[in-house]
Amino acid sequence: MNPGARVLVTGATGQDGSYLLERLLERDASVTAVTRPGDQLTAGLPAQVRPRTAALDDAEALRRVVHDASPEYIFHLGAVSSVAASWERPAETMAVNTVSTAALLESMASTEGARLVLASSSEIFGSAADSPQTEATAIRPVTPYGVSKAAAHQLVSLWRGRGSFASTAILYNHESPRRPETFVTRKITAGAARIARGLQDHLTLGALDARRDWGWAPDYVDALLAIADAEEPDDFIVASGRSHTVAEFAEAALHAAGVAATDGLIVSDPRFVRPADVAEMVGDASRIRSRLGWSPTVDFDGLVQRMVAHDLALIDQADPPR
């Protein structure tokens, strides 16, 4: 990516978007950020970034943004990204996640040589027959979110077949202190910090045996940039290659907070168990490692420790220990 490159980012106020903006500004890119109407986080965008408001399910609004920004690179990160929310609002999830992708791909025709990278998801594989999953693993989602991302993923493939530089980053779970507590990982690390400071007495979670492949969000943003600058467009799994259970994540967080994981400290509540869920997700990132030279720099224990340290610091800043 050359200095001054014109870049359009959707989902700029989310976890990945915020890290991506930082990376892009380090490269002196000219960045336009698409934000949702009423998104109060827009005010926190860096001053160098030009905000444009457009609902992701408004195809015409997205076309106008692309026409005006004339981007050389499009990073499509914006989405209804919560699996739980997709069960509550399946129609909205389909509209936002799929219509936006179709509109951006369609609009690329007006910007010669533009490159698009979609933040796809491991949820497209659903009940995968393969473990670990590769880019050739059959797509068979089991959640409304997974269905919406699978549709978007396949739209990218269709446009790539027509000659567009359209790639997907099949992102496995990736975390950081910038996750809101609506995500189970941040719920765990914030809860562990509160337990350590005597502000909470246990963690209440959903399925403790669900296994996920967790990575460090800034590493995965670096993968997005590598995919955008690749010689050829393609699908790339971005994963650590190791899986852990939710219970293991909670135990690691408590350990990082200096708390012994005694009986009764981690509780499973059926109310927080999803109607349908995948048992284990673990990705094989061999393609992006071999072709683009990407590999994660922070392991599972490292990301948990960083998140817990952040949450302990938040508590201590609000009420310094005496």
From TrEMBL:
<dbReference type="Pfam" id="PF16363">
    <property type="entry name" value="GDP_Man_Dehyd"/>
</dbReference>
<dbReference type="InterPro" id="IPR036291">
    <property type="entry name" value="NAD(P)-bd_dom_sf"/>
</dbReference>
<dbReference type="GO" id="GO:0042351">
    <property type="term" value="P:'de novo' GDP-L-fucose biosynthetic process"/>
</dbReference>
<protein>
    <recommendedName>
        <fullName>GDP-mannose 4,6-dehydratase</fullName>
        <ecNumber>4.2.1.47</ecNumber>
    </recommendedName>
</protein>
<dbReference type="InterPro" id="IPR006368">
    <property type="entry name" value="GDP_Man_deHydtase"/>
</dbReference>
<feature type="domain" description="NAD(P)-binding">
    <location>
        <begin position="8"/>
        <end position="307"/>
    </location>
</feature>
<keyword id="KW-0456">Lyase</keyword>
<comment type="similarity">
    <text>Belongs to the NAD(P)-dependent epimerase/dehydratase family. GDP-mannose 4,6-dehydratase subfamily.</text>
</comment>
<dbReference type="InterPro" id="IPR016040">
    <property type="entry name" value="NAD(P)-bd_dom"/>
</dbReference>
<dbReference type="GO" id="GO:0008446">
    <property type="term" value="F:GDP-mannose 4,6-dehydratase activity"/>
</dbReference>
